[in-house]
Design goal:
There is one protein chain. This protein is about 35% helix and about 20% strand. The chain is built from ten helices and eight strands. The protein has a five-stranded parallel beta sheet, with helices on both faces. The chain has a three-stranded antiparallel beta sheet with strand order 6-7-8, with helices on one face. Strand 2, helix 3 and strand 3 form a beta-alpha-beta unit. It starts with a helix and ends with a strand. The structure holds adenosine monophosphate (AMP). Adenosine monophosphate binds next to helix 2 and strand 4.
Length: about 270
């Protein structure tokens, strides 16, 4: 991959890149289309990164279907699919990790302490291997996108980072590989995330700008579903991710819940 990237760069080709953990859905494909419009050669990586899973998380159970991913990649005009082995990225005696000081101390970082360290570490490795000019990440993982932008700024990576909007099912559920864990009877409860976000947007438009009230409203909404355990409901600054008391112009509303063992996240920028 590194040799190929070198040759492409020497021939003046612009490399676009979309890193994923596979089990591709329309959300991933939308990122491939954004990248495709910005580059000459499109690279997709499929790698379930063990470093971003905690000891009791779903590394083993994470859904996989490489054959189907390759078919979809072909249909989207992907030029190279990079599928490294665990041992290629984390060879014996591996010791180097990349960690940000503040941004992982919010939202998902609080309940998933090793997650962002794993993400930033693997993304650094992938940047050094794929040598992309432009990389696209989804706003579905808003905190991840903010963290990658900060890392690229801090460490002077010569790469452009683009964000792609959240792609949803027709009923509003944000697409996610983990939706494969959901049983049909859990669908209604899973929809509560996107419904809370839409409802909150309406409340903000109607003048409810205090975070406390919006968070309380969301909490009550989730309380209707016995199977939902709220991890966080946060109204925060879109850049620092620090909680804010009152929405002035706009703010991020970010949600994470556990639905009988399936972790679901969603977010929306609320504007007033
Ligand atoms: P994953 O395979 O879950 O690690 O995701 C790979 C990339 O796809 C990340 O940049 C995600 O933010 C992005 N992504 C996942 N789901 C969606 C979605 N529903 N809409 C847009 N991007 C998404």
């Amino acid at each position: 991959m590194q040799g190929r990237a070198d040759r492409l760069r020497m021939s003046g080709r612009r490399i676009g890149f979309v890193p994923t953990m596979g089990f591709l859905h329309e959300g991933h494909l939308s990122l491939l289309r954004i990248a495709k419009a910005q580059c000459d050669v499109l690279v997709l990586s499929v790698f379930i990164n063990p470093a971003q899973f905690g000891p009791h998380e779903d590394l083993e159970a994470y859904p996989r279907n490489l054959e189907h991913d390759l078919d979809l990649a072909r249909q989207e005009g992907v030029d190279v699919v990079f599928v490294p082995a665990d041992k290629t990225l984390y060879q014996e005696n591996y010791q180097s990790y990349v960690e940000l000081e503040k941004l992982p101390g919010h939202l998902c970082g609080l309940s998933r302490p090793v997650f962002f360290r794993g993400v930033t570490t693997v993304v650094c490795q992938l940047f050094n291997i794929v040598k992309p000019h432009v990389v696209v990440f989804g706003e579905k993982d808003f905190q991840q996108l903010v963290i990658i932008r900060q890392m690229v700024r801090d460490l002077k990576f010569d790469v452009e980072i683009l964000g792609g909007p959240i792609i949803r099912e027709e009923d509003g559920l944000a697409m996610s590989s983990r939706n494969a864990y959901l049983k049909p009877e859990q669908r209604e409860a899973a929809l509560s995330l996107s419904r809370v976000l839409v409802q909150s947007e309406e409340l903000v438009a109607a003048g409810m700008v205090e975070s406390k009230k919006l968070v309380e409203n969301a909490r009550q909404f989730f309380a209707q579903y016995g199977d939902i355990e709220v991890d966080y409901i946060s109204i925060c600054d879109t850049e620092t991710l620090e909680e804010i008391a009152e929405i002035k112009n706009s703010a991020l509303m970010a949600l994470a819940v556990n639905l009988k063992g399936t972790r679901l996240i969603d977010n929306r920028v609320l504007s007033c």
